[in-house]
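Why do we care about 3D structure at all? Because function follows from shape, and shape follows, mostly, from sequence. That is the central idea of this module. The next example makes it concrete: a single protein chain, its amino acid sequence, and then its structure expressed as tokens.
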Amino acid sequence: MKYLDFIDNTKISKICFGTWNLSPSTKKFISPNTTTPLQSINLLRFALDKGINFFDTADIYGEGIGEKIIGKAFQNLRKEIIVITKSGVLNERNDTNFSKKYIEKKIKKSLTNLNTDYLDGYQFHNITSESNIDSSYNFLTKLKKKGKIRSIGFSSRDPIDAYKILKNYNFDFLQVGFSIFDQRLLYSKILELKKKKKFILLTRSPFNSGYLLKKKSNKALIRPKLQSLIDHFVKKNKKDIYYKNNSLAESALKFCISFPEISSIIIGMATKLEITRNINTMYDDLNLEQGWKKKLIKVYKTFNGN
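And the structure:
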């Protein structure tokens, strides 16, 4: 496992365990969950044993159950892990509430669920440059000074819009989607801004939430048009996408790992085999693999007509 700098000289694993699919579906929020709580706990502990020390969750994952699972899995191992959570999303329509009162309430609940007295990182969940977060951001800054949270971040669905947010606030970290099929990050100027503002970049969905691998465990989550578009992209560019004798999953993850600017890649994993496979997919020699990486960037650009 490779480790990179996070906050206050701590190190995070290059692979971050995203816990959405370890959390059960509820009436308000659907998830691709296929594991029982006990199985989820065992997977989290297995991941830690294999070197993954970084875990991402949210208040809406199982409406708190996801956080509770992490709290139970690491109840005596708190100092060995880095855990970040997020809140602000109210429903699957992505209605949001980032008011100070709401955020304060949710942080208290997350601390209880995670069985901890501090958070390594707190994120505004899916904010946009139009979101009103000034009051809450100031509140989080005060919590950071008190040691209740160690870092402040946000998640964004649009890297182009995330760039605008980063220019206006001094966030410690952010997470955005990035994959061979979704390379908007490279056109967002975020990587350029990172050299000046020194924030930590996390990316998620290297497999496009399973669509890249044709793996969707919940029919309610399937989007046929997106699946068809990704299938076409992979079929048309197959000879350029696959790295040597690697599988599509390994090649897709290698591409994301190949960017040294990305501190950690958030991946949902539901089996020990998936955890082991992702850990073993490292990017060992950037010089030897640069040609393949450049081809993938060109393939994406051509496919999208840029």
